[in-house]
Amino acid sequence: MSRTKLLLxxxxxxxxxxxxxxxxxEVLANNExxxxxxxxxxxxxxxxxxxxxxxxxxxxxxxxxxxxxxxQILKSYxxxxxxxx
Length: 85
Prior knowledge:
This protein is mostly helical. The radius of gyration is 20 Å and the shape is extended. It is built from three helices and no strands. Helices cover 61% and strands 0% of the residues. It has a domain at 54-85.
């Protein structure tokens, strides 16, 4: 994956996040609940099967990111999220 593609993916994710945050801020500013019509029976959604990710796939992905120059970011992220037992 090229560095440009990775950056475009990050920009897209940030735009999606900004849109979600804006929606939340608008709801909070209006201090309204979403309009409810009559109470409906909950719709059961079929849960999609989650693909099991192998350790090899994780290693491959991390190696790609390191080659893109993101080693320090990954190291910092892992240090802050992975807690020793």
